[in-house]
Amino acid sequence: MFEQEQVSNYKELDLINALRDFLPIAIKHLDLDHVPKIHLVKELHDTHVPTFGRFENDSREISVVIANRNPVDIIRTLAHELTHYSQGVQNKLDHESGKTGSPEENEANSTAGIIMRKFSMKHPEYMKS
Description:
Blueprint: E1 2-4, H1 12-30, E2 37-41, E3 53-56, E4 61-65, H2 71-89, H3 103-122
Parallel strand pairs: 1-2, 2-4
Antiparallel strand pairs: 3-4
């Protein structure tokens, strides 16, 4: 499910534990049958704007930047990108979907917030880090 580049100076165990606790919550909220391949990377290349995450609709894969980031911030990015994955599965995405203010982008932002509240209520220990 996850592919991780070598990332130095990172608390990998904290992230792995957080992801283990987070994914069931996100999967249930988004009503997903399965989770796409998720790449944990140092940085994203070939993007026209700076970003911490990306969902590729054609390959149905997610990439999330983990270098120099708090696990909770990484998970929030993953929640956002998993929402885009769900939108892609439902054929709701087009070439305009990633633009700031688009209905799909707004939905990904608000849904990620809801998922994060559910996660923080069930696992408040991560909010202390």
